[in-house]
Recover the amino acids of this structure.
């Protein structure tokens, strides 16, 4: 309970801020939609190639929109000295990390929930299958955990808009591969059920590994 | 701490090299001689490969360079943990120097690999687990160096870099296995001798081991040299800073 209350307070603070300003989710959403449209023209998506191309488009859109949302989440803390305030408050660093990660997770889920139907309509595939939703949940969790660590780092650097993706994508690659594999199997609906039973647990394992390492590193390196 | 180190290096830095040899000087001479011997062994002693011909000789560069780059990143990992635990700037400078040398070596490993892959596999590049992991390694440690130079506060940069040095190294096996599982579903288009270390002739093996040892020495030399150079740079900037301070006080 002592651990959960500060996390809940942190999440509520960020949700309230977002409800009043709406700048993170809306801008990331529009950007993600733009990615989908650009890919549609860049790749010439025909009905025969949907199963092949849709998972890639889906995850590039989600990942880029997510990176945009996560970098904004810490910029907001920094502008008014909010991060110093958080660190001074009698809350453990782990709780701060988990609160921020949870907020990023929720923001990304909202963005994805809005993008997924649009993608399904534009590319003509069935979006609401259990496998695809499970892949989205697990991969988004991994994205939020790793992304929170690196956006806390990137926000302190010059040219932070570049630093977050540069740090984030090489590390998150295993999760991205798993997400694309499972989504491919879910959208293609082919005989590749082995893909799902192999990658869904792996995604959970990756999430668990990052959930151990990232809060630990965060609590050590985030100072003053 | 930093000031003491810096001034000591800037006063003795010039003489350490030419006046009396010092550790680096000895290491440089030894490595240079052994490297010449290595070239002799590779081009004149090692037998020509029966199937691949002379192009196979790049193997004696490629494998040691790749292994040295992994060693370098392991050094970054260990030094990063050391820095986070002790907060001594010595660990940090080891990690920084090892990352710089490691990026040079991993770039060379990728380039020699590409040059070798073309005649042997008939493609420049394939998304095979080892190649992909090496490329991701390159990306992670380029990001590491970028992070170092983009953080305005130096001690903060050291902390962040240490965090990345740890998570980056832990990530490498995960990347390797995930790419392996990914490739196992889409079998590689390349048909050819993927297993390069199948059956090596004894002479080839000796040359390879010797070459590996020489490249490890080269790595050690470059590491120490880079640390010494950074020490001098730090001393110099400290000197400039105090000079400016003195001038502004006089004005």
């Amino acid at each position: 309970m002592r651990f959960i209350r500060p996390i809940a307070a942190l999440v509520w603070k960020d949700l309230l801020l977002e409800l009043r300003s709406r700048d993170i989710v809306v801008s990331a959403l529009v950007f993600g939609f733009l990615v989908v449209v650009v890919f549609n023209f860049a790749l010439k998506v025909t009905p025969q190639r949907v199963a092949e191309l849709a998972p890639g488009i889906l995850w590039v859109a989600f990942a880029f929109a997510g990176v945009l949302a996560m970098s904004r989440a810490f910029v907001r803390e920094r502008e008014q000295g909010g991060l110093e305030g958080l660190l001074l408050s009698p809350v453990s660093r782990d709780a701060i990390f988990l609160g921020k990660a949870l907020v990023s997770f929720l923001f990304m889920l909202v963005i994805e929930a809005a993008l997924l139907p649009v993608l399904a309509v534009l590319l003509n595939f069935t979006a609401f299958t259990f496998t695809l939703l499970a892949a989205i949940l697990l991969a988004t969790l991994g994205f939020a955990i790793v992304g929170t660590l690196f956006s806390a780092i990137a926000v302190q650097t010059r040219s932070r808009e570049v630093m977050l993706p540069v740090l984030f994508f090489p590390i998150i690659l295993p999760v991205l591969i798993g997400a694309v594999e499972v989504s491919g199997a879910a959208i293609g609906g082919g005989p590749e059920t082995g893909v799902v039973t192999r990658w869904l647990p792996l995604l959970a394992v990756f999430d668990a590994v990052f959930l151990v390492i990232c809060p630990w590193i965060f609590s050590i390196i985030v100072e003053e | 701490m930093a000031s003491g180190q810096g001034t000591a290096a800037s006063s003795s830095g010039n003489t350490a090299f030419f006046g009396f040899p010092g550790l680096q000087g000895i290491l440089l001479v030894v490595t240079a001689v052994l490297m010449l011997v290595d070239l002799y062994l590779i081009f004149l002693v090692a037998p020509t490969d029966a199937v691949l011909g002379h192009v196979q000789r790049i193997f004696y560069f490629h494998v040691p360079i790749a292994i040295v780059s992994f060693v370098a990143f392991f050094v970054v990992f260990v030094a990063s943990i050391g820095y986070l635990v002790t907060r001594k700037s010595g660990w940090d400078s080891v990690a920084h120097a090892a990352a710089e040398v490691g990026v040079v070596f991993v770039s060379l490993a990728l380039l020699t690999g590409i040059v070798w892959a073309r005649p042997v596999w008939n493609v420049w590049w394939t998304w095979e687990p080892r190649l992909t992991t090496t490329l991701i390694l390159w990306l992670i440690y380029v990001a590491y160096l970028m992070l170092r130079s983009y953080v305005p506060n130096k001690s903060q940069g050291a902390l962040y870099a240490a965090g990345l040095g740890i998570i980056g190294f832990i990530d490498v096996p995960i990347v390797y296995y995930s790419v392996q599982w990914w490739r196992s579903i889409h079998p590689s288009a390349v048909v050819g001798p993927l297993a390069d270390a199948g059956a090596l002739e004894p002479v080839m093996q000796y040359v390879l081991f010797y070459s590996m040892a020489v490249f490890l020495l080269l790595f050690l030399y470059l590491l120490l040299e880079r640390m010494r150079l950074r020490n001098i740079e730090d001393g110099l900037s400290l000197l400039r800073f105090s000079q400016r301070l003195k001038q502004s006080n006089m004005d």
Remarks:
- The mean pLDDT of chain B is 82.
- The interface with chain A takes residues 84, 136, 139-140, 142-143, 146-147, 150-153, 156, 159-160, 162-164, 166-168, 170-171, 174-175, 177-179, 181-182, 185 of chain B (CB under 8 Å).
